[in-house]
Amino acid sequence: MKTHVVRTRRSAEEFPRSEHLAKKIADLAVDPVEVPTDTAEMVINRIIDNAAVAAASVVRRPVTSARAQAVLHPFRPGSTVFGLPATERVSPEWGAWANGVAVRELDFHDTFLAAEYTHPGDNIPPILAVAQHTGRSGADLIRGLATGYQVQIDLVRGICLHENKIDHVAHLGPSAAAGIGTLLGLDAETIYQAVGQALHTTTATRQSRKGEISSWKAYAPAFAGKMAVEAVDRALRGEGAPAPIWEGEDGVIAWLLGGPTAEYHVSLPGPGEAKRAILDSYTKEHSAEYQSQAPIDLARRMRDRIGDLDQIASIVLHTSHHTHYVIGTGSGDPQKFDPNASRETLDHSVMYIFAVALQDGVWHHQHSYAPDRAQRPDTVELWRKISTAEDPEWTRRYHSTDPDEKAFGARAEITLKSGEVIVDELAVAVAHPLGARPFERAQYIEKFRTLADGVIDTAEQNRFLDAATRTAELSAGELDQLTFTVSDDVLASAPVVPTGVFDWSVAAPGSN
Q: What are the protein's UniProt keywords (predicted)?
């Protein structure tokens, strides 16, 4: 890996394009280095993982709305949409949009946490959509996804966005554009322009994950993927990007990140160095924000030691800066204690999540967030006894570059009314690569089977899993097999959504 110093440059300063971060990323994308076998196998795992969570969300309202928009943009060759027959194709940017929302809606796919945090599986919908549309092979797709994961994870390691209240999808636009560039075998200049455009159009504030969190949390990465597809299309037509996009005097670093004096260190693979970053990421066993994964497992482990939960006087979760300030009481968000809060908000309340995991001993992607579950009086009472506190040691471990000590967990101190204090801690989730039961291919398949149950019939599950496990062998034009179809009855169970602008010639505005 070669580390690049990234900082603001004055317009009058000599700063050759070869030194721009966007050019370094473009050079990485065009490197013909082979994809390692373990990287390729993990790419397949994540294709299965994305489809699993998309199956679980396919009839939820935000996903239904996105799908309704996409089908109004039919296109040939086009790309597929989760839930619909593979023969029903839409324009690739709209396929990326619909599938991106389906993958992200339940906050249940892979994650990587470092200086910034992200869900690198968000690269799969836009890169796969373009691969289907352009008739690429499975090997091409794997190469493109290896690049997408590498770029996003390396940006996440080196550039913190959230400290400046910028949403993490600002790293996704460039990574997806770079991955599409690798997929299509584009030249470095075209990829350079696409990366710059994608960053410029996908930089937004973190209010999407603060306060009253709405369905835009699921739409934000889908929007970034859609913008990446469009950025590549414009760059192919010879249209350029603002440059230098990160380092310019009025660029992203100067005005949206650390400012003119800030300096970032971004390490990228050098020429001929394999793209292995996907192996450093991890998926979720539970449908909850990643910092909640270990606390869920910890609550399940502690509940038998507590016995009668009514005897709890208080619970303090000692954890990292990130967990405390983003999903804990350090956020200052009263909505994180609101029984009427949205699913998206409850998903970002570790206090709620720990309370329900203690009471139920399980976590379910639907039942654990149901309004009647959140509004149970005994749950609300327990929930409001829970707080978080930043512990410098957990913060240090969160940011550690040593994978053996990097941690995303917490120490729980549960004080009973008797005065007895029960203490336990868990550094990483059970399903983490260093956890008690790391996810391997069998667990990814089991997750798919579980979430597809009652949504995708068994024969279609089998067909998809067979195709997915053979991704590297799929020939040009066969990537339409990497989707799933559900029955008309399943789709009919989705909520009816109002019509929008794209339906204007189809129905009266506002009609159903």
A: Lyase
Statement to judge: residues 107 and 181 lie in one domain: yes
Is residue 263 helix, strand or coil? strand
* φ/ψ (deg, to 5) at 22: -60, -35
Q: Do the domain assignments include residue 242?
A: yes
Burial degree of 271 (CB within 10 A; 0-12, 13-18, 19+): exposed
Which of 43, 27, 108, 5 lies closest to 344, judged by CA?
108
Tokens of residue 179, six digits: 């991955």
pLDDT value for 102? 98
Cα 378 to chain center, whole Å? 33
What value does the mean pLDDT take over residues 433-438? 92
Its domain, for residue 328, covers 290-426
Cis peptide bond upstream of 174, omega within 30: no
Amino acid identity of 72?
L
Residues 463-471: what's their mean pLDDT?
98
The conformation of residue 35, written as its DSSP 8-state character, comes to P
> Has residue 364 been placed in a domain?
yes
Residues 400 and 371 placed together within one structural domain of the fold: yes
**Residue 280 near residue 39, CB atoms below 8 Å:** no
Phi, psi angles (nearest 5°) of residue 133:
-65, -35
Cβ partners under 8 Å of residue 351, min gap 6: 317, 328, 329, 336, 337, 383, 384, 386, 387, 388
Task: Read off the pTM.
Answer: 0.90
pLDDT the model gives residue 507:
54
Boundary of a domain, candidates 426, 446, 481 = 426
- 449 residue type, one letter: R
Per the structure block, which two tokens stand in for 20? 């721009």
Q: What are phi and psi of 143, to 5 degrees?
A: -60, -45
CA distance 357 to 369: 11
Rounded Cα gap, residues 414 and 350, in angstroms: 15
State both tokens at 451.
Answer: 């979430």
30-82 pLDDT, tens digit per residue, is: 999 999 999 999 999 999 999 999 999 999 999 999 999 999 999 999 999 99
DSSP 3-state of 388:
strand
3-class SS string, 161-208: CHHHCECHHHCHHHHHHHHHHHHHCCCHHHHHHHHHHHHHHCCCEHHH
Give the pLDDT confidence score for residue 212 in this predicted structure.
Answer: 75
Structurally, how many domains does the chain consist of?
2
